[in-house]
Write a structure and sequence with these properties.
Length: 237
């Protein structure tokens, strides 16, 4: 898939937050952002998954499957809070969920963007450079993607925490989540000027939080993580 737009909208894990999803999509449309990516986990949340799917389809959002879609379709982990079952979903919703790829790529102004839930086709894959509170999480899958050199941007979710990790030849952006009370929101990425703008839902309103130019690369791959990373401020402190 190709897009001529340099600015794209980034939606993290949805978890059936249909009202917040509609607000984010309305925001994108009002700001002429026509290419929108979603990291999946549409089901298992406090809102309406059927309406979420309707919104994603009506706005032509590029969407991948998350581990919660896999769990729902295989009837696994249904004891988690706000879990859905297949009988909660309309036939057209199930059809959409079954059709979702694990990952996809789009071409944006000559740059390749990979969208996935975890890392590549591993929907529970994650990376973390390591901080004083959390040890490093490395990924051979991501290291292979970096080494291949075909992808310049990787957009993922799963962690529910917005991050920006600048590797040599690839920048990873975790889009966060729409759910919960801790930093729910979305982002916009301009691949031409290499800048990320994050937003959060605050007391029912959308508030801009951080504007960040993509920094110089810090690591050649995840094996180079040293555990002393300071996350960029992409959220309200």
């Amino acid at each position: 898939m190709k897009t001529q737009h340099s600015k794209i909208g980034l939606l993290g894990d949805v978890h059936s937050e249909d009202e917040r999803l509609e607000a984010a999509l309305t925001f994108f449309r009002a700001h002429d952002i026509n290419t929108v990516l979603c990291t999946g986990d549409i089901v298992d949340g406090p809102g309406d998954p059927n309406r979420c799917v309707e919104l994603l389809q009506s706005y032509s959002v590029h969407t991948v499957a998350g581990n919660h879609e896999r769990w729902l379709l295989s009837d696994k982990a249904r004891g988690i809070p706000h879990a859905h079952r297949m009988h909660d979903l309309e036939p057209k919703t199930l059809k959409f969920i079954r059709s979702l790829p694990k990952s996809l790529t789009i071409e944006c102004r000559g740059q390749t963007v990979m969208l996935c839930h975890g890392i590549g086709d591993h929907d529970m894959g994650k990376v973390w450079p390591g901080t004083d509170r959390m040890p490093p999480e490395r990924s051979d899958i991501l290291d292979d993607i970096i080494k291949d050199g075909a992808v310049q941007w990787l957009i993922n979710g799963h962690l529910h925490f917005k991050t920006l990790l600048p590797f040599h030849n690839l920048t990873l952006i975790n889009a966060g989540t729409l759910t919960g009370e801790r930093w729910p929101g979305f982002s916009t990425l301009d691949v031409q000027i290499q800048a990320l703008q994050t937003y959060e839902f605050v007391e029912g309103a959308i508030k801009p939080v951080a504007f960040l130019d993509v920094p110089e690369p810090l690591w050649p791959n995840t094996q180079a993580f040293t555990g002393d990373w300071q996350p960029p401020a992409l959220y309200r402190r």
